[in-house]
Amino acid sequence: MGRGDLTDAEWERLRPFLPVSNGRCGRWRDHRQVIDGILHRVRTGVQWRDLPERFGPWKTVYERHRLWSADGTWERLLQQVQAAADAAGDIDWDLAVDSTIVRAHQHAAGARTDPPPAAASKGAETAEHQDEPPWQSLLARLVEVVQEVRDWAARAADSRASST
């Protein structure tokens, strides 16, 4: 299992919501492997053709992502996982919005106020998302994929509008 791949717990929560093959096109490649490939691309921004071989053929990963983007599978997955997390009480829906605007000088943006943290030693490894509840990591990753799908759809709509 590579860095950023679905954990066993995340996979078990996600698996019941995934579509099944209709049988007309043969057997589908393992959903987990394909989703790991999609998450890798979303996280790193690599080209589809540059996906590592451990995710299977790049075209399979691309086509599944394209198909699930077009038919709304990613949106449904996000809604179902959010609903399950909400039912388990793992989501706090309280929201605070402040509309105060404070303008800063352009040179004041992003200045460091304290020294950067000390780098960890090479032997010390920290687990990703260690302090998060198990749902938060999966939800964050699904939100990234859904956002990419929305961006992709917006770019496609813009290119169609400008080409006519």
From TrEMBL:
Domain Insertion element IS402-like: 6-77
Domain of life from the UniProt record: Bacteria
UniProt region (Disordered), positions on chain: 106-134
InterPro entries found in the cross-reference section: IS402-like_dom, Transposase_6_like
PANTHER family (alphabetical): BLL5188 PROTEIN, TIS1421-TRANSPOSASE PROTEIN A
Protein name in the entry: Insertion element IS402-like domain-containing protein
Organism the protein comes from: Streptomyces violaceusniger (strain Tu 4113)
Organism ancestry: Bacteria, Bacillati, Actinomycetota, Actinomycetes, Kitasatosporales
